[in-house]
Task: inverse folding
């Protein structure tokens, strides 16, 4: 039982890093990215390639290489597609994800094709073997803590404020003399780097790099996690990561076959995603704020202040005309 | 030298099927600006309904099944738009519509897997795909029908939009919804027509795809993707542009299927799509330019 819990916690931490990276894109830059699984896969297959060929099993070395590859890919994708409207970006993102997954499924010398690469060597950090669950837990914990610290620091600093402002009103940021394209590209590269580093840890922990795991579905699940947890909130990403990591364990208690487990999880998160966007715009992390605001709004409508009409309410009335 | 006729027939047939999807997606996108990701998934549901209800050998039965399939797709589309409507007025409304649409597509796909299984389904009729030699081209009834339906679909959409009162109102709604409402357009009724036509086109495209090759629950996403690319790269608002771009994708796919081994076709096609978006984002055809939102 001990082993199973440590397993879930390690996977939660990996998913947290993955979700926190995507949160930068969805929560800050307000773009919907569907290629996060492809960047995650970059990390996994850099590790498998380096490990199988005896180049290196050091997490720092493979992590750095994976970060560079994913960073360059994100940079190219951002430069090409972020200049244009959000609708292009989603298509480019989709196409990139589909190209990547089909490439991995067919490029057998690197990815093992649909069978994956098995029996990866145990990773090392500074020459120390990482093989026990406790050691993996420590590495994942350090990675998650560094991510949390860095993103919190960045989010509160000038760069984070700019990134958030850009999501709200791009022209205002441009008018203030900053380049929205440069900020966006930075956000995307950082997000890609985090995904790749998480991928290295994930593959080295499982000992497998299995291409079918990194399809569109994973991308959408991670995006769902970010939104369900609360877009723009690092606490939300953590909640989302935990939810995603624990869901297979919960579903495996039901009597379902392999395909049904996947589809049930997909259906559950898809419906939860729609419900959260419609009913709880701030996600689970923002739920207290949303609820308080809603209760206040209801009180205000029940007891309208005498002789005074809110301009905001008037504007809302105008919009209601069909 | 036998390659060229095969590529031509296959390419035009597939391109025409994609074009039907592009016309439907384009109607919705141009009119409402909603990026309706669930479009393809809804079409797949419609086509499953048609195939599971259609009795063998009865034309009336088939027509009834088609009506029911389109009705199912229409109900899902209306549900989707009811949800879009609740979130689209928010400050980050476009992102919210994206996410809701993605969630719906994902939910529909999962529901199909749970009820019917993840296996690919082929709606084959041997007599429809049997090849005949007509002036050197290896055509089948289905390929001719697909090309005819594609052209017919383009003609119907163009005629409806340019020659009827409803089409006039649709274009009004597309260019200025507030003004359209002010001059007395029943916006909901007009929108319902758009959604119905788009649902029918989605069902038709998915059904033809299933008759040609096979349909899996995941086919819907691919249909949406190709349709969306054709609409945007063909020039938003230009249905001819979208039609031609979809034909181009079909021809490209048929060519790649000939020169590349099996699964690399998909990679080639999506790579080409990715390159078009990255290098030529303003569209290949004329039409309205895309506004950055």
Result:
């Amino acid at each position: 039982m001990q082993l199973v819990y440590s397993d879930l916690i390690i996977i939660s931490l990996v998913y947290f890093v993955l979700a926190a990276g995507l949160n930068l894109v969805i929560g800050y830059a307000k773009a919907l990215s569907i290629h996060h699984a492809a960047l995650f896969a970059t990390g996994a297959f850099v590790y498998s390639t380096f490990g199988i060929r005896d180049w290196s099993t050091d997490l720092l070395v493979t992590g750095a290489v994976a970060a560079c590859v994913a960073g360059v890919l994100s940079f190219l994708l951002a430069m090409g597609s972020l200049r244009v409207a959000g609708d292009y970006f989603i298509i480019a993102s989709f196409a990139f994800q589909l190209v990547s997954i089909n490439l991995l499924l067919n490029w057998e010398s690197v990815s093992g094709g649909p069978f994956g690469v098995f029996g990866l060597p145990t990773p090392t950090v500074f020459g120390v073997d990482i093989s026990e669950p406790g050691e993996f837990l420590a590495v994942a914990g350090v990675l998650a803590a560094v991510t949390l610290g860095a993103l919190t620091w960045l989010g509160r600093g000038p760069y984070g404020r700019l990134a958030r402002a850009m999501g709200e009103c791009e022209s205002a940021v441009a008018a203030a003399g900053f380049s929205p394209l440069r900020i966006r590209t930075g956000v995307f590269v950082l997000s890609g780097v985090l995904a790749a580093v998480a991928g290295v840890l994930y593959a080295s922990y499982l000992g497998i790099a299995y291409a079918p795991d990194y399809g569109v579905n994973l991308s959408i699940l991670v995006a769902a996690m970010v939104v369900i947890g609360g877009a723009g909130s690092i606490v939300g990403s953590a909640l989302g990561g935990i939810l995603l990591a624990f869901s297979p364990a919960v579903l495996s208690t039901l009597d379902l076959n392999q395909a049904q487990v996947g589809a049930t999880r997909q259906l559950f998160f898809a419906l939860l995603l729609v419900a959260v966007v419609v009913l709880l715009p701030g996600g689970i992390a923002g739920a207290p704020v949303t609820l308080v605001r809603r209760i206040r709004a209801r009180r205000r409508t029940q007891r309208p202040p005498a002789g005074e009409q809110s301009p905001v309410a008037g504007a809302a009335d105008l919009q209601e005309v069909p | 030298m036998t390659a060229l006729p095969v590529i031509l027939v296959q390419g035009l047939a597939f391109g025409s099927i994609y074009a039907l999807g592009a016309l439907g997606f384009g109607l919705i996108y141009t009119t409402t600006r909603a990026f309706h990701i669930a479009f393809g998934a809804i079409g797949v549901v419609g086509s499953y309904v048609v195939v599971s209800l259609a009795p063998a050998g009865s034309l009336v039965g088939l027509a009834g099944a088609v009506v029911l399939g389109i009705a199912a797709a229409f109900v899902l589309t209306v549900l989707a738009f009811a949800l879009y409507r609740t979130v689209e007025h928010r400050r980050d409304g476009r992102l919210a519509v994206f996410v809701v649409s993605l969630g719906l597509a994902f939910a529909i796909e999962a529901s199909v897997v749970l009820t019917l299984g993840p296996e690919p389904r082929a709606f084959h009729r041997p007599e429809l795909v049997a090849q005949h030699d007509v002036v050197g081209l290896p055509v089948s009834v289905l390929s001719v029908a697909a090309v005819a339906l594609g052209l017919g679909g383009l003609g119907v959409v163009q005629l409806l939009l340019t020659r009827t009162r409803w089409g006039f109102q649709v274009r009004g709604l597309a260019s200025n919804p507030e003004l359209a409402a002010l001059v007395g357009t029943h916006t909901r009724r007009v929108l319902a027509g758009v959604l119905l036509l788009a649902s029918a086109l989605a069902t038709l495209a998915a059904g033809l795809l299933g008759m040609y090759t096979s349909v899996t629950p995941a086919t819907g996403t691919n249909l949406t993707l190709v349709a969306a690319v054709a609409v945007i790269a063909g020039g938003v608002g230009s249905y001819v542009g979208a039609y031609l771009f979809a034909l181009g994708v079909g021809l490209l796919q048929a060519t790649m299927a000939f020169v590349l081994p099996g699964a690399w076709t998909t990679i080639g096609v999506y790579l080409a799509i990715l390159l078009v978006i990255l290098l030529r984002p303003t569209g290949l055809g004329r039409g309205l330019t895309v506004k950055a939102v």
